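In this supplementary section we document a worked example of the pipeline. Step one takes a protein sequence of length 372 as its only input; no multiple sequence alignment statistics are reported here. Step two produces a three-dimensional model, which step three serialises into structure tokens for compact storage. The input and output of this example are shown verbatim.
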Amino acid sequence: MRLHAATLTLALAATGCSVHTVENVAMASAYRPPSPPQSASPLPAPSSPQPQPQRPASGPAVSSPPISLPAAAYQILAGDMHCHISPPDSPHDVTRGVAETLALAREEKLDFVILTPHLQARFFADPAARAQALAGQAELRRAFAASAGGSTVFIPGFEYTDHEFGHVGASFADLARVLAEVPVDVAVADPARFFERWVADGGVLVVNHPVVTPLHSIFSRARADMSWRPWTSHPPFPAEILAVNRLAIGFEAYNVAITHLRDGLLLGDLDSSLREVTGLIDRDILGTRRRIAPVGGSDSHAVWIRAATFVLAQSRTEAGIRDALLGGRTCVRSPAACSLEVRSPGGSWVSVGGAVRSGATVEVRARGGRSS
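The serialised model returned by step three reads:
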């Protein structure tokens, strides 16, 4: 099936079909994860020592049956952390609106969706761009207000889009309040202040598609450099980019569009970006001694979305999802990865988001799913 889809996708691209048509055809056979279980193994209490984060594993590359986990304190929630929508996104770039997004979220059984329309680099330093951004966020909140209490939690956010240095997903803070606290003159003088204030006000920052460097291809998007330059290039970097690099709690290890269109179709390796990003996350955890979590998103601009991030949360609420992300209780691609547990010899089992003190030996176990 994947070979047939790839052949058809290349044929459509060669005949000049729109990028959205190509994307929709390619995603028709893209991996769809199994439904997550309702609960997962308990984690240590928040007061437990956590000297070093433990990176969660990614799930299998093939479909697997739903996993069975014992009842416990946390539930596994399935979500999409990188989802474009028009408006505020341009209809020339994004073909999916509110009604389609609501329907697809129900169809895919998503517990949460973070909406990430594009905002231009340094929009916070330009009065007109600030006003446009605020109008777009207000419209998103109005459009999805009627869905509150439904099966999916929709969280307005945005994708900070700097074509020279990288893309950043921002969510969970109130843009109007942050901009009021960082007026234009302050943002011009100190651009890093916006992201510092975003996090101080409870916001979450994640770096999107950090290793997507240009490829020679018939696809124009594949020829673009969308990588995170602090990972793929050399200094100097702007102050706001350095601030994000310091403040981001996660990096997008699993981008569904890139996995199937770039890695699978063009590179012939569905695990290429996932493998590279998780390795670099491990490097940065050791180098910075701070918690960094892998996350996932569809990066959909067309009529499809997918569950890509799975979190261990105490509640299916915006606060519960944010707490899980900040606690590093994430896994990507499949909920089976959230059953990962580790312990030092003779110690207690610690789940995703926890940490262990150990020498050279640890025990690892996971439940459910099918090995890849």
